[in-house]
Write a sequence for this structure.
């Protein structure tokens, strides 16, 4: 009898353990074993045609309004993926960037281009680049993950080195939306329920970046326009830039706010235009693997979403994508 009770209790414990394993496995959105490196995509460029599109969102953030038709008179090339660790390391080593991650930039003096991911934030997001001996290299196994802990200056210098540039905010939004007059809301789909097929965000990423090109591309063949890492754009950020565009001729090839304009006082109308010190922040787009996407209206993983940050900030969710003129 005692032995039977022991066996019954052991069987109960085993069943509970098996159920726990089952529910844990069911709760995993993505198993890293199903992910693959896509080296063939690194450096691949996609042609984006000239055209018009409706910029902004009527239901999003205040800084996404008003909606207007934007004209881009020239086509351009855009990276099929975000720039990867292995690509950025080639630039760092060729350019002689020091072990701290600094160099003299083209027009901004000495700046920090990146932080080493093995030490930044105590190595919690160690899927980027680190300095080993006398050179920079990707963390082993993460060669084709998006480069992270990249400042705007680092992104800008890489693009110059490649004979290209960062996309303007308008170019990014147009390409993400599929180069359509009425852009896709989620860079590949208008259905919020399908977002997980196109984007890495907090709910399906496990809180870590992923190798590029493992989700569906949008209609142009651009991968990870939503999620994985936020992508720096060339524009300075102006809170009321959209509002002022109609009167300032910024609906054709919009270049972003003029960072040389300085607000003189709290009563200056330009203070209304710049919410921070003149030329303080750069735009980033697309959302990342860090942010939660629980709302189809106000979440970060929308084509029209606008983010902004100081250009010298490096973070585990900041990366970029290359653009070249045709």
């Amino acid at each position: 009898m005692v032995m039977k009770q022991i066996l019954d209790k052991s069987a109960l414990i085993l069943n509970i353990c098996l159920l726990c394993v089952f529910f844990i496995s069911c709760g995993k959105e993505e198993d890293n074993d199903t992910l693959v490196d896509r080296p063939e995509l690194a450096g691949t460029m996609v042609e984006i045609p000239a055209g018009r599109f409706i910029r902004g969102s009527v239901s999003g953030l205040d800084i996404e309004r008003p909606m207007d038709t934007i004209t881009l008179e020239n086509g351009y090339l855009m990276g099929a993926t975000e720039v990867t660790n292995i690509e950025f390391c080639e630039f760092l080593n060729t350019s002689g960037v020091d072990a701290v991650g600094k160099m003299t930039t083209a027009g901004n003096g000495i700046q920090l281009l990146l932080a080493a991911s093995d030490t930044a934030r105590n190595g919690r997001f160690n899927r980027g680049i680190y300095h080993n001996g006398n050179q920079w290299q990707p963390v082993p196994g993460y060669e084709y993950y998006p480069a992270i802990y990249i400042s705007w200056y680092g992104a800008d210098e890489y693009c110059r080195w490649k004979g290209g540039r960062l996309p303007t905010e308008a170019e990014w939004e147009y390409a993400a939306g599929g180069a359509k007059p009425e852009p896709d809301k989620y860079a590949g789909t208008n259905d919020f329920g399908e977002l997980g097929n196109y984007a890495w965000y907090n709910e399906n990423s496990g809180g870590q970046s992923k190798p590029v090109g493992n989700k569906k591309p949008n209609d142009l063949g651009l991968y990870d326009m939503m999620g994985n890492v936020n992508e720096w754009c060339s524009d300075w950020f102006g809170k009321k830039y959209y509002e002022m565009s109609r009167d300032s001729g910024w609906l054709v090839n919009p270049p972003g706010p003029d960072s040389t304009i300085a607000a003189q006082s709290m009563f200056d109308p330009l203070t209304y235009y710049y919410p921070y010190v003149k030329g303080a922040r750069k735009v980033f787009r697309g959302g990342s693997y860090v942010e939660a996407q629980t709302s189809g209206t106000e979440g970060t993983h929308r084509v029209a979403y606008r983010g902004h940050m100081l250009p010298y900030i490096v973070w585990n969710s900041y990366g970029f994508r290359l653009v070249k003129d045709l």
